[in-house]
Design a protein that fits this description.
The structure holds two protein chains of two kinds.
Chain A lengths: L1 H13 L3 H6 L7 E5 L5 E5 L9 E4 L3 E6 L8 E7 L8 H7 L12 E11 L4 E10 L2 E17 L2 E13 L15 E12 L2
Antiparallel strand pairs in A: 1-4, 1-10, 2-3, 2-10, 4-5, 5-6, 6-7, 7-8, 8-9, 9-10
Chain B lengths: L1 H10 L11 E4 L5 E5 L9 E4 L3 E5 L9 E7 L8 H8 L11 E11 L4 E10 L2 E17 L4 E13 L15 E11 L1
Antiparallel strand pairs in B: 1-4, 1-10, 2-3, 2-10, 4-5, 5-6, 6-7, 7-8, 8-9, 9-10
The chains are: A mainly beta, B mainly beta.
Chain lengths: 197, 188
Amino acid sequence: MIRSFLAAATVALALGATAPAFATAPAFAADTYKLEPTHTSVTFQWTHFGFSHPSGKFMNADGSVTLDQANPANSSVNVSFAIAGVATGVPALDKEFQEAAWFDAAKYPTATFKSTKVAVTGKTTADVTGDLTIHGVTKPVTLHVTLNQVGQEMGKATAGFTATGAINRSDFGIGAYVPAVSDKIDLYIEAEAHPAM
Amino acid sequence: MWKSTCFAVALSLAATPSFASDTLKFEPDHTYALFSYSHFGMSRPSGKIMGASGTLVLDSTDPTKDTVDIALDMSTLSTGLPDFDTQLKGKDYFDVAQFPQATFKSTKIEMTGDTTANVTGDLTIHGVTKSVVLAVTFNKKAFNPAIFKTGYGFSATAKIGRGDFGVSKYEPFIGDDIELDIAAEAYP
């Protein structure tokens, strides 16, 4: 999919097709965007006895962003990730994370985030507070979001975001091996979204 | 595996290894290179390469005489998107069938602080070798009760240009600049 997208985009550029694409770009006023599953990720990182900082990643986001550039505080996000898609680079650990001692994916197959408040902190930054549900437990979490760009990506309207945050996994009932395996989990989020059709 | 190593603590309280040798082995489950790049300035996708093998030789008196010789297994490449992993391992990118490993062999170490050093070495990716500097932070030397060994933990960062290694597909649409975030644990 990535390859065909890139190939199509390359062809489009070669043919000078960007100008018509720009001409048909949608207006950006409280637009609803669909998160792009292949370019939206949540990387979570912990500390292993203080030696190293292992990480895992969720992709294949299912969700949307409402972006109100005129009044950013009215923006919102609602996203869900499948626990089954976790990728740590260690297949045995991916499998173990599905088990009852960790995410218990059979009972709680998704993690979700629904924003409840957007506090603008700068020209392209905002603190987005929302309800984060993991392992069946919902807690308020604030993400520090940067709007990287709103524009055209190979002729396709796109909004790109980066966000960071931190949670304590024990708050969500996933406290195995705390503190040797740290309770604190740092979150690094990348997101791209395209106007919903 | 994760669970079993943690539980092994209770079973192995008598088996302390000796430290006659300063040659350590990289621990493959806690050693990785994460690469990230700019995707049209919109986001930074990333992937991770694991499967470390190799040695870290520590000089007991002079850290600038330490040496690193490590290989990562390119077949472990994971982005979280299995289809994309297959593409990246294919001929258009890393051509893992022909170049199954990425390797780094240190050639020079300069201390930059009490726990930091610039480690210069030969990085080989996709069959191409270039000199690269890793900014390394020594995180911790301690007893790891999960495996009952005293080990060493490190973090490192580096920037490389993928075109230098002959992996330039879709440049300049997809950036040449690659940031590397490296984690490593090494044990006797």
